[in-house]
Amino acid sequence: MVETLVLIEHDRRQVKRPSLHAITLAQQLGGEYALLVLGHGLDEIAASLVSYGAAAVIVADDPALAEPLADRYATVIAEVARKRGTKTLLGTSSTFSKDVLPRAAALLDAPMVTDVLAIEEMDGSIAYRRPINAGSMLATVKVEGDRRVLTARATAFEAPAANVAVCPTERFLFDAASLPNGVQFISREQRASERPDLTESRVVVSGGRPLRDPETFERLVGGLADALGGAVGATRAAVDAGMAPNDYQIGQTGKVVAPELYIALGISGAIQHLAGIKDSRIIVAINKDPDAPIFQIATYGLVGDLHQIVPQLIESIRRG
Amino acid sequence: MTQGQSVEKILVPFKSVPDPYAGAAASTSKSVINPFDEIAIEEALQIRERGEATEIVGVTIGAPAVDEQIRAALAMGIDRAVRIDDARALDPYAVARILRALVEKESPQVVIMGKQAVDDDSNQVGQMLAGLLGWPQATFVSKIEFLENKTRARCTRETDGGLEIVAINLPAIITTDLRLNEPRYVSLPGLMKARRKPIETLTCEQLGVTVRPMTTTLSTSSPTRRAAGTRVGSVEELMAKLKQEAKVL
Known about the structure:
By secondary structure, chain A is α/β, with parallel strands linked by helices. Chain A is built from eight helices and 16 strands. Chain A has helices at residues 21-29, 43-47, 70-83, 95-107, 214-228, 236-240, 271-274, 306-319; strands spanning 4-7, 33-39, 56-61, 88-92, 112-116, 118-122, 125-132, 137-143, 148-152, 169-171, 183-188, 203-207, 231-234, 261-265, 282-287, 300-303. Chain A is globular, with a radius of gyration of 21 Å. Chain B is built from seven helices and 13 strands. Chain B has helices at 35-49, 67-76, 92-106, 125-133, 188-196, 204-207, 235-245; strands at 7-13, 16-18, 31-33, 53-62, 80-85, 110-114, 137-147, 152-159, 162-169, 172-176, 199-202, 215-221, 230-232.
């Protein structure tokens, strides 16, 4: 029996690093934990997971799982959880786990807690702290029943340390022909980027509506990000206006980031956006409106015109 | 199905939430339809207006006070609404189990709902409902097109890695993301018409479903606020702070 099963996410080539942060929550919960990875052609990915202190790496590898289709994935995940007597099924908050895990929870007849930030002991049982109302409030919740499903916020848990001991890899065998067939994968947008992943980058530069158009957005936000070796993010307004693709969106309904340095260009600071950035170590805000709410949480604020300031900043960074 | 036949029924579950744009200063909390569910309602209306659906049924769960949001949904243009009379603090799994009973009663071909409620931010109900029903799901959707005489739908999903396109067999659950559409404003004639549209009230007992929430909120608190920092007067000063004080460059 493994108490906790941690779902690991990958992009076919490698493990997505934030998905490892859920392992740290598994360690805090105590007891044995196993890592679960689904897909096709997973040998290298599975091999990269053997030194995180798990009892086993469980691999569900089959052509039927080549694409992360929720109906199939949830079925296999629930089957593994049931066979292993798992009490806690756990993943890192991402569109992948938010798609798949609630469905698996329903199949397991288990309640679910989204975006766990911390756990605390309360009257002999575990309570989970999570953000609500776009992170403007924190709720402490407890769950009943033998099983539960959780997603952990990657920014709230450290990456786990890899150790020397190596755990076994086990192949999970299942009847692929009996899997649901109601969802067909058609295509995925392929956008090659040299920039680091938004949720993993040490530096994030993001832009809001005043960037006006995709060219200006790329020149100023992209240009500053490149000067710093950072990732590019955007507000909902900038994405809605077509200045940046959807996966750049940071905030309540987009990505949550907590880099060493977050630079907000032309971002007023709606709570929905702040929900995604407020755990950043240093926040720099550059905005022409001196009353923009972003200045209330920024470590350093500079009032002025982006179109003049950002090129100067890029120049200054490049000079060293 | 014959050529051009429309989806007979779309079910749109929606939640009443405190107005997320009211601001912290608002003394009275006004309730609104959860913005993501409003997008779901709008999408159902556009599908019907294109002649691709016949009837739109809205459903919400709550005390009689949520009738105000039901009227708003009816005023937007849905055909009829069901209120499941349950004033308890339900968790997503309880909501999903109640909705399953209603789906079984109404037999819609498509359920469209918001990907998350902006008060609780759980992002669970649609996926749980799909799992309970054994139906296909497409979550975080920013475009819907029906295929092959409404036996399938092609959905564009907003994922962390960019856009993904899937086709789902109907009946299915679709959860909406922000960029699916821009919900319409309620018109005065719409409001007048809404008064004459039926709101059916059902209890869980009448639906034959017994649920008890398995999640309890023990307490809520305010997160620690970041202190406001320093204003700098120039790029040079900012660079100096980042290098010497913050040591991030």
